[in-house]
Design brief:
Blueprint: H1 2-18, E1 23-24, E2 32-33, E3 39-40, E4 43-44, E5 61-63, H2 78-90, E6 94-98, E7 101-105, E8 108-109, E9 114-118, E10 122-126, E11 135-140, E12 143-148, E13 152-155, E14 158-164, E15 167-169, E16 178-179, H3 185-193, E17 197-198, E18 204-206, H4 209-216, E19 242-245, E20 248-253, E21 256-258, E22 265-268, E23 271-276, E24 279-281, E25 292-295, E26 298-303, E27 306-308, E28 314-317, H5 321-327, E29 331-341, E30 346-350, E31 358-369, E32 373-378, E33 386-408, E34 417-418, E35 425-426, E36 438-459, E37 466-478, E38 480-499, E39 504-522, E40 526-531, E41 536-542, H6 549-552, E42 553-555, E43 563-565
Parallel strand pairs: 5-6, 6-9, 7-10, 8-13, 9-14, 10-15, 13-19, 14-20, 15-21, 19-22, 20-23, 21-24, 22-25, 23-26, 24-27, 25-28, 26-29, 27-29, 28-30, 29-31, 30-32, 31-33, 32-33, 33-36, 36-37, 36-38, 37-38, 38-39, 39-40, 39-41, 40-42, 41-43
Antiparallel strand pairs: 1-2, 3-4, 11-12, 16-18, 17-18, 34-35
């Protein structure tokens, strides 16, 4: 990883010397960004992508101390920071500097043409006084909602940035509930003794009585919510920490965002987004503690970022259910490279709120270490939306507690049932409609996994199988092998599967047009199991070994003619 990052930095330096089309952003660490139609960071992309437009700022600089901000005290700097940003924007833009020191503030409101630049040693702590955060019309989990305003907000802006080496702390412990199962006994005891209140079953801790009421008594929430009638439940209406809505030319570079009330960084309906050199972290027990949620955005890059969070790390979304489909704004044309994920529920994730669609995403050179699930794709009937044209290559994983790669189209829905006599996985087929989610045209190349519970699990739906997926050049060490149900046109090439426990290397049920060649496995008690009434056109070939049905393949007799052993 260090070598690849060093190579990227060397390339950037060389490119800054040789290219006349570069744009350099003032106030950040000598980082240069190229703008080529099908090349981002020296990568040749498999789709045509417009130039990512980078914000450029005037050299004019304002210091928040000149507006009355006082460091290293409990005095709120909200007015000083926002006044500096406002004046900078009204004067044609420039840089607003937050110097080294501890700064306590309420919500920060960004303005167009402003680079909020943090010096090394700047620690911006958002107040735990929730009265400072007004209820507003906002968005969360793909829908319009009433929620507290975010610690950092930008709406309908252009040419904006947050840069430098500072730390933004969302003071999430003042907002978030905590489940008993996510802590050790000693941690739980310390948390309960710190104050707050417990749920009736004493399994969830809330930071306040208001937070408990808003979460535990949802049946009392107004049917038609307004800012006024939601006020009694305000303390439960946790905001995302960094919210940019309908913005163009957005840059976040170098800073740390941590300890968010809910999701951490959430660009929504934005264009030309550049996220680089960020550290995004939340406690591993944080409820809804996502790292980065890119939602209904187009044209952007995520480069050289670090994640250690309580929920999904790098997550691609596009709205939820009917509202998301009517919004009809897919997340598209993004390049995500050179990132590291530590704790997270999923390393790179698409869904589950993907009703507006996701397409033309290129992911390369990611490392997942101890992440619950590596590559995670999730949805459910009712979402609708099409996920297509997704490329993932050069992915490394280490110590993955669940699945290295997972497709789950039953997320919070009715799961597939298994026939105890045949092992066949079946589910009722539904009519295809606008509510039917689809995942197709996805490409996985050079995937290396050193330890996972399961190598690959695909749980599709019968009316819209997961389809046209290619897996090439994978070496995976795991306890359990490959399991697929309701898939179509899946190709495997050059797969090396190393099982830590005896079992079936690959199980296929209700699968069509599946080709597995140059396949090698060790530690298995059986190579393949094939079942499912709708299964057809299965072609199998082991690398350097001639298989037989009697020894290597268990297949239901009714579909045996659909399974071919290739020479």
């Amino acid at each position: 990883m260090k070598k690849s990052i060093t190579a990227l930095l060397i390339w950037m330096v060389l490119f800054s010397v040789t290219s006349c089309n570069n744009k350099t952003i003032k106030g950040i660490r000598n980082t240069s960004y190229s703008e080529n139609e099908k090349s981002i960071g020296g990568l040749n992309l498999p789709f045509k992508m417009p130039d990512v437009q980078i914000p450029v700022f005037k050299a004019d600089t304002l210091n928040i101390e000149d507006f009355g901000a006082v460091p290293n005290s409990q005095e709120l700097c909200t007015e000083a920071i926002n006044e500096a940003i406002k004046k900078c924007s009204e004067s044609g833009g420039g840089v607003v500097v937050i110097p080294s020191g501890l700064w306590t503030t309420g919500p920060i409101k960004m303005k167009s043409n402003v680079n909020l630049h943090t010096k090394n040693g700047a620690y911006i702590s958002f107040t735990g006084d929730l009265s400072q955060y007004k209820l507003i019309h906002s968005y969360f989990e793909g829908n319009k909602v009433i929620r507290c305003e975010s610690p950092i907000t930008g709406v309908d802006l252009e040419n904006i940035a947050i840069t430098g080496q500072g730390i933004f702390d969302g003071n999430g412990s003042k907002w978030r509930p905590v489940k008993i199962g996510k802590m050790t006994d000693e941690q739980w005891k310390t948390l309960v003794n710190s104050g707050g209140v417990l749920s009736k079953d004493r399994k969830i801790w809330y930071p306040s009585e208001g937070a408990l009421i808003g979460n535990e008594e949802k049946d009392k929430l107004p049917k038609t919510p307004t800012v006024e009638n939601m006020e009694p439940y305000k303390q439960a209406l946790r905001p995302v920490m960094v919210s940019f809505v309908n913005c163009k030319k957005l840059l976040l570079d170098g800073v740390t965002f941590q300890n968010s009330p809910a999701w951490n960084v959430n660009p929504l309906l934005c264009e030309h987004v550049t996220l680089s050199n960020l550290t995004i972290r939340n406690p591993w027990y944080s409820q809804n503690g996502d790292g980065l949620d890119i939602e209904s955005c187009r044209i952007g890059t995520v480069t050289n970022c670090r994640f250690d969070v309580g929920d999904d790390a790098i997550c691609i979304k596009s709205g939820k259910d009917k509202e998301g489909r009517e919004r009809a704004k897919p997340t598209e044309l993004f390049v995500i490279t050179d990132c590291v994920v530590y704790h997270a529920h999923g390393g790179f994730v698409i869904g589950s709120e993907m009703s507006g669609g996701v397409r033309n995403i290129f992911v390369k050179n990611l490392t997942f270490n101890g992440t619950d699930c590596g590559l995670r794709f999730k949805s459910v009937r009712g979402r609708g939306g099409v996920v297509e044209n997704i490329w993932m290559e050069d992915i490394r994983m280490n110590n993955i507690p669940t699945d290295a790669i997972n497709f789950n189209l039953y997320y919070f829905g009715k799961a597939i049932a298994e026939d105890p006599h045949t092992g066949e996985m079946t589910v009722e087929k539904m009519p295809v409609s606008e509510e039917t989610p689809a995942f197709k045209n996805m490409y996985f190349k050079n995937i290396y996994v050193n330890g996972a519970k399961q190598a690959l699990k695909i749980m599709g739906i019968p009316e819209m199988p997961v389809q046209n997926i290619q897996f090439k050049n994978m070496i995976i060490r795991s306890e359990v092998g490959i399991q697929m149900n309701y898939v179509r046109k899946i190709d495997f090439e050059n797969i090396d599967l190393r099982l830590d426990k005896p079992g079936i290397a690959a199980s296929l049920s209700n699968s069509q047009n599946v080709t597995i060649e140059s396949f090698k496995s060790t530690g298995e008690s059986q190579a393949f199991w094939v079942g499912g009434a709708t299964t057809k056109e299965i072609s199998l070939k082991m690398k350097g070994y001639k298989m037989t049905f009697e020894k290597d393949i268990k297949v239901l007799e009714s579909i045996k003619d659909q399974v071919k052993i290739m020479d």
